[in-house]
Amino acid sequence: MIDQTAADLTSYKRDLLLAVYRANQANEIPVGADVKRELEALGQTNTAGGQFYPRLNELVEQGFLTKSDHPDDARGFTCSLTEEGNTVLTQLFVRNAISLDIDVAELDLPAEPPRPGLRLHGRTRG
Fold first, then answer.
1. Which domain of life is it from (predicted)?
2. With a threshold of 0.85, does the pTM exceed it?
């Protein structure tokens, strides 16, 4: 069970989840440097080890990411979203779409609305 939602995570952690997703989309075997590049592309400037690695490890501990040794280079690592991480990232996209009053297809919405009374498709739901 997910104890946190996208709204509970810091903006850095939300961006880090998205950066991991994007790095996995762009690279067959993404490494930490690929995730850092994606994080910087999202506007995060603090990608040095002091912020990056502790937040990455926290997301692993929370069950949102997996992290493993790189198969070809023991100095590096790979990481990807878990099912829970995908769920939280989906929550983030839906939450942003709702806050911007963007129509989201019913098929793409979670079974339960993020909060009662939010407007979806121009009508109140909940």
1. Archaea
2. no
